Amino acid sequence: MDIKNCVAATLAALLLTLSASLQAQTSDTAAAKTPRLTIGGYGEAVYSHHFYSDNVFRYTHAERYKDAPGYSRVDLPHAVLMLGYDFGHGWTMGTEIEFEHGGVEAAVEKETEETGEFEQEVERGGEVALEQFWLQKSFSKALNIRAGHIVVPVGMTNNGHLPTQFFTVYRPEGENTIMPCTWHETGISLWGRLGAWRYEVQLLPALNSNLFNDAGWVHNGSASPYEFRPANSPATAARLDWSGIPGLRLSLSGYAGNTFGNDITITIYSETSRYYGATGTLLIGAFDFTYANRWLTLRGNIDYGHLGDASLISTRNKNQTTMTGNPYPHTAVGESAWGASFEAGIDLLAWSHTIQRLYVFGRYDHYDSYVPAEGWTDVPWAERQVISAGINYRPLPEIAVKAEAGIRLLAEQYNNEPYLAVGITWAGFFVK
User: Fold this and answer.
1) CB–CB of 310/279 below 8 Å?
2) CA-CA distance, 317 to 363, in Å (whole number)?
3) How far apart are CA 170 and CA 403, in angstroms?
4) Are 324 and 335 in contact (CB under 8 A)?
5) What is the 3 state secondary structure string of 393-431?
6) pTM for the full predicted model
7) CA-CA-CA-CA torsion for 376, 381, 382, 384, nearest 10 degrees?
8) What tens digit of pLDDT does each residue of 326-372 get?
9) What is the DSSP letter of 167?
10) What is the spatial distance between Cα 384 and Cα 4, in angstroms, rounded to a whole number?
């Protein structure tokens, strides 16, 4: 090879090396620009008017409240801040801080009207909750491990609880009554995607049967009045989703755990005790689906749950101490509960090329929070049907302005409960 060809070959090699180096730097710069911090959230502000009395005796003495005046409310059901971070190498974290009904405002004030005494004042009710706080290691799309405080995706609403994921102003009533919603526990989750399938299996602390009641079945069972969550008994939850047809999702989910004795103390009962051997095994199964195309959105669910030893748990709960500060209800709990719902929305702006959406929707809920154990008296008002209709205007995908009119239908000896509600809602990310 002569000198001229050698020089040309050397220059060509240098140019290729420089080009590869520049491409690598460009790639690294693009990767560096990818946000590692995720910031988002969701919120709701609601006005509602109820054309019936909210007196606590409206079911016990329904005839007294047949013509009673209604009442109105303004509410901030949820205001949530979501933060996430990608540490790299498959490690991520997520957290969700929720302020329910405006949070809690408490302060110490000096009362000039009472000789200058200091008093603790609660100026606004509500709750502040850490709804999610987890660390995740992703090995692949098919295998992820998440540990910490996580959402339990049993049922349609727990899996899709953002206000842009349902048409009603408040969260759908049936599931929100008979199960914890949004259900969140501290535990560990194994999840992944395989083609059109998504699976998730969780290990969690069981619910606490001392908090079950007739109006909400096991809804309050995930709560804890203490600074910690009793975890004497483990439980499992699982969910399987299939999305093999565009726009369609079919899902099965379930829960199993022993709930009796999962409290701050464990009472050991002798073999002669009526409670000896009770476990309070809770089983919940749910099916839900979503179908959406340009014009139409359909959603529906069916839930059923069974509580073992419901008669013994009812006896135990009704006999709990009534001392001041006792955080437990004193009602019976149903041996089972069930619920079903269906909603449909038509987008009146689907024909246009705008990003705006205007849904007209209808919804039907039917549920029963108290199917009594043998020997226990039925509570007829616990079975309810809710029929509602309204509109959702979405100027952007992240924002929904909602209006709804509905009626809750009860057994004939009670008064039906009509209502109106309007709300402004949003759900989205600021940095993603």
Assistant:
1) no
2) 35
3) 10
4) no
5) EEEECCEEEEEEEEEEECCCCCCCEEEEEEEEEEEEEEE
6) 0.86
7) 150
8) 677 888 999 999 999 999 999 999 999 899 999 999 999 999 999 99
9) S
10) 92
